[in-house]
C-alpha cells in the first residue's frame, strides 16, 4: 500500500503525516502523532471517547480517515488547556469530580467545549442531548451534566 | 486499498469507470467506516466526494432546495431557510445518531446505505425528493422512491454516485413532518418511522398529501391509501381514523428484537396520524 501524505492543522500547529489509506484519524493521532488523549472505546461511533473537532465541528475520529484531514483544522483534547492553564471545563470537572476512570473524559470535554461555543446558555435538556453520544459507564452522568452547566454559568458571568 | 479525493464530478466519474474492483463512495463515512473496520467490506478503493465542487452546498434552485451529497445533518439543521421550507426532512435527518454523527452523516449517505429503517428516507419520499445521479452518461434525475431496492440494496450502478438531492418548490400552505418510534429518547434505530408531506387549499382542506412509512417492510413504503384518506378533509376525526387504518394495513413488518409485527403495525397507524397532525398545523391548518 502506498502511504498518503497529509497536511493539516492540529490544535493550531501545522502538521504533516503519512498514513495508510484505510487508517482512521484516531489511529493517526494516537499511533503516529503521539496524541493519546483521544481514546478508542467502541470504534464504531457509538461511545464518543474519540471525539475531536474538525473545523470546529465535533466528530468521532474513529469514523474518519486520516487522509480526510487534509487541509482541515483538527482540535483534540491536547489543545484544550493553554499551557498550564486549564480550560474552565477542565477546572470544573476536577472541582466537582465529574469523572471516575477518566476514559470518556477527553471526549466529553471536547464535545462540551463545542456545545458552549455553539450555545453559551444551554438548558439541562440541551446539554444532555448534545452529550448523548458520549457514553460514561462510571458516573451516571449527573456530575458531568452539572459540571458543564456550572461552567457555562461561570463563563457567561465572566464575559 | 486506494483513497481518491477528486475535485470535479468528471474526475470522479472517470475514476469510477477505471475501477474494475470494489469501489465505495465516502461522504460522511458514518456507515462506511463501521463496515470497513468490521471487515464487512474490503474495498479496492474509496472515493471521497467531499472535495468535489458543490457537494457541501445547500442552494436555492427554482423555488426548491438542492442539497449536495456531502452536506451533513448539522449543516442542514443550521440552515434557517431550509428548516423553514422542509421542516420534516430536516427533523428526520436530525434524528440520526449523536452530535458527533450529525457532524458528518449525510442525506445521500442515509439513502445509499439502503436501510429500511433510515430516518430521512420516508421524509424524502413524502417530500417528492429528486435524486441527481452522476455517471458515465452525465447526470440523471430520479425520484427518490426508485433508489431503495431492499435491505442494503439500491438501484445505483457501480459506476454511479449521488451528487445531490433536490427538494422541489411547493405551494403556499404546505408543510411536512417526520416521527419515529424508538424505545429510548435518543440514539437508536427506528422501530417505525413515518413521513407526511401535505398542502392545504384556500379553505384549509388537505389538497394533496404523501405518506411514507419506514422500518415496516424491506424498503420504505409510500402509502397512497393513507394520503387519499385525508385529501379533501380538514383532518377531522374520521379522516384521521381512516389514515390510521390505512397505515396499519400498509405496514408489513417483520418480528424482531426491536418490535413485533402487531406492535409495529399499530405504531405505524399512530405515527401516521400524529405526523399528519403536525404537518397540518405547520401548513397553517386549523384543528
Structure description:
The complex is a heterodimer of chains A (159) and B (287). By secondary structure, chain A is an alpha+beta fold. In chain A, 34% of the residues lie in helices and 16% in strands. Chain A has helices spanning 25-32, 88-95, 105-118, 124-130, 142-158; strands spanning 4-10, 13-19, 51-54, 57-60, 73-75. In chain A, strands 2-1-5-3-4 form a five-stranded mixed β-sheet, sandwiched between helices. In chain A, a hairpin with a 2-residue loop joins strand 1 (4-10) and strand 2 (13-19). Chain B is built from eleven helices and 14 strands. The radius of gyration of chain B is 19 Å and the shape is globular. Chain B starts with a strand and ends in a 5-residue tail after the last helix. The mean pLDDT of chain B is 96. The chains are: A alpha+beta (159), B alpha+beta (287). Chain A binds chain B through residues 1, 4, 21-22, 24, 43-46, 48, 51, 54, 57-60, 62-65, 67-68, 70, 111, 114-115, 129-134, and chain B through 1-3, 5, 26, 29-30, 33-34, 36-38, 46, 48, 50, 72, 74, 97-101, 103-104, 186-187.
**Residue share in β-strands of chain A:** 15-25%
Instruction: Point out poorly predicted stretches of chain B.
Output: none
Shape of chain B: globular
Tell me the radius of gyration of chain A.
Answer: 16 Å
Mean pLDDT of chain A: 97
Oligomer: heterodimer
Shape summary of chain A:
globular
Task: Give the strand line-up of the largest sheet of chain A.
Answer: 2-1-5-3-4
Number of strands of chain B: 14
The structural domain count of chain B equals 2
CATH architecture label name of the largest domain in chain A = Roll
Strands side by side in the biggest sheet of chain B: 4-5-10-6-7
Write the H/E string of chain A, N to C. EEHEEEHHHH
Treating each run of at least 4 consecutive H or I residues as one helix, how many helices of chain A?
5
What class, by secondary structure content of chain B?
Answer: alpha+beta
Give helix % range of chain B: 25-40%
Amino acid at each position: 500500500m502506498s502511504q498518503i501524505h497529509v497536511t493539516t492543522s492540529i490544535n493550531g500547529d501545522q502538521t504533516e503525516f503519512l498514513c495508510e489509506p484505510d487508517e482512521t484519524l484516531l489511529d493517526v493521532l494516537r499511533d503516529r502523532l503521539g496524541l493519546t488523549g483521544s481514546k478508542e472505546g467502541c470504534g464504531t461511533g457509538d461511545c464518543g471517547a474519540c471525539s475531536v473537532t474538525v473545523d470546529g465541528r465535533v466528530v468521532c475520529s474513529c469514523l474518519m480517515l486520516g487522509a480526510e484531514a487534509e487541509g482541515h483544522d483538527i482540535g483534540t483534547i491536547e489543545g484544550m488547556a493553554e499551557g498550564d492553564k486549564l480550560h474552565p471545563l477542565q477546572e470544573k470537572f476536577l472541582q466537582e469530580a465529574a469523572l471516575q476512570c477518566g476514559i470518556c473524559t477527553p471526549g466529553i470535554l471536547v464535545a462540551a467545549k463545542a456545545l458552549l461555543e455553539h450555545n453559551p446558555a444551554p438548558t439541562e435538556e440541551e446539554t444532555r442531548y448534545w452529550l448523548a453520544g458520549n457514553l460514561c459507564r462510571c458516573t451516571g452522568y449527573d456530575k458531568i451534566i452539572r459540571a458543564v452547566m456550572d461552567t457555562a454559568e461561570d463563563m457567561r458571568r465572566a464575559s | 486499498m486506494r483513497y481518491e479525493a477528486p475535485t470535479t464530478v468528471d474526475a470522479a466519474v472517470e475514476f469510477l469507470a477505471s475501477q474494475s474492483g470494489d469501489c465505495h463512495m465516502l461522504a460522511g463515512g458514518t456507515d462506511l467506516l463501521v463496515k470497513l473496520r468490521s471487515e464487512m467490506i474490503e474495498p479496492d478503493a474509496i472515493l471521497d466526494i467531499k472535495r468535489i465542487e458543490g457537494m457541501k452546498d445547500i442552494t436555492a434552485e427554482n423555488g426548491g432546495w438542492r442539497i449536495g451529497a456531502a452536506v451533513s445533518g448539522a449543516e442542514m439543521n443550521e440552515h434557517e431557510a431550509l428548516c423553514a421550507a422542509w421542516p420534516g426532512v430536516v427533523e428526520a435527518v436530525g434524528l440520526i445518531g449523536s452530535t458527533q454523527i450529525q457532524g458528518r452523516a449525510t442525506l445521500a449517505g442515509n439513502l445509499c446505505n439502503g436501510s429500511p429503517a433510515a430516518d430521512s428516507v420516508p421524509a424524502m419520499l413524502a417530500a417528492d425528493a429528486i435524486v441527481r445521479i452522476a455517471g458515465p452518461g452525465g447526470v440523471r434525475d430520479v425520484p427518490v422512491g426508485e433508489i431503495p431496492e431492499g435491505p442494503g440494496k439500491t438501484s445505483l450502478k457501480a459506476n454511479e454516485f449521488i451528487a445531490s438531492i433536490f427538494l422541489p418548490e411547493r405551494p403556499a400552505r404546505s408543510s411536512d413532518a417526520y416521527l419515529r418510534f424508538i424505545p429510548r429518547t435518543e440514539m437508536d434505530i427506528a422501530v417505525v418511522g413515518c413521513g407526511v408531506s401535505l398542502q392545504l387549499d384556500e379553505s384549509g382542506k388537505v389538497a394533496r398529501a404523501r405518506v411514507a412509512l419506514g422500518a415496516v417492510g424491506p424498503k420504505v413504503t409510500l402509502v397512497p391509501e393513507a394520503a387519499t384518506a385525508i385529501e379533501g378533509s380538514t383532518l377531522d376525526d374520521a379522516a384521521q381514523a381512516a389514515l390510521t387504518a390505512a397505515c396499519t394495513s400498509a405496514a408489513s413488518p417483520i418480528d424482531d428484537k426491536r418490535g413485533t409485527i402487531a406492535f409495529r403495525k399499530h405504531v405505524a397507524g399512530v405515527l401516521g396520524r400524529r405526523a399528519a397532525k403536525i404537518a397540518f398545523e405547520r401548513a397553517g391548518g386549523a384543528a
